[in-house]
Amino acid sequence: MKRLKLEMLQRNSGDMTILEKSSLNKWRGNKMKKISACLILFVLLLLPLQLKAADRYEIDPSHSTLIFKVKHLNTSYFYGRFNDITGSIVADAKNPANSSVITTVKTESIDTNDEKRDKHLRNPDFFNASQFPEIRFRSEKIEQLRDGTYMVSGKLLLHGIEKSLQVKMTKTGEGKDPWGNYRMGLHTSFKIKRSDFGMKYMLDGIGDEVELSLGIEAIRKES
User: Fold this and answer.
1) For residue range 52-71, what is the model confidence (pLDDT) as tens digits?
2) Residue 25 confidence (pLDDT) above 80
3) Which of 36, 68, 90, 105 allows an S-S link to 135, with CB 3.0 to 4.6 Å?
């Protein structure tokens, strides 16, 4: 009789051990699920911050300028400008290699303060604005040289011909405007030869080398 009770006690003890192990495994499983859920939530919360690391800007045409300078009759420098500039900028302060610049200029908007001359510059002798309505630049690589100065490499499309272009671009300022927008300014100056882009009319009277200065003011897009 005592032996039977002892066997029953040992069997019950074994059953309790199995139940305890099952409960422990279940508790551990629930614990791991909670930890995994917390990790996933943490990653999802961080994702918008990572995406927001790169700010997006739209160029403000009213406060952006493209000026050109060219020699006239090998005597003096003549200046003109384009009045229609648009584009977008991606600015990643932590990783400038992720940044980009796209600018578009309407050739029809050329302005030299003389309507007769402007009309001539728009015709096939020069810009041929009806056939090539836009001058475009799209960056392909951006390297930070020092704080606020960048080397921007990309493609310039002018007069239907696309060529590689590398310019040094400087951040001229940034901050909030009186209307609550956040603005950033950029500037670059560079030289090209118009003959490289098929603009060879009157090279003996109007210089081949053209210096361009681009001042950009852009407004940050709020997500």
Assistant:
1) 578 999 999 999 999 999 99
2) no
3) 105
Same domain assignment for residues 126 and 176: yes
Element (H, E) at 203: none
- Note whether 173 and 211 are same-domain residues: yes
* Cross-strand pairs, 58: 88, 219
What is the residue range of 110's domain? 54-220
Give the DSSP H or E segment for 182. strand 182-193
**Separation CA 70–CA 76 (nearest Å):** 8
pTM score of the predicted model: 0.75
Give the list of residues 6+ apart from residue 148 with CB closer than 8 angstroms, or none.
170, 171
Q: Are 169 and 137 in contact (CB under 8 A)?
A: no
Contact 197, 216 (CB under 8 A): no
> What's the CA gap between 84 and 61, in Å, rounded?
6
What sections of 110-201 are H helices per DSSP? 115-122
- CATH number of 92's domain: 2.40.128.110
Residues 101 and 35 in one domain: no
Q: For residues 110 and 122, is the Cβ–Cβ distance under 8 A?
A: yes
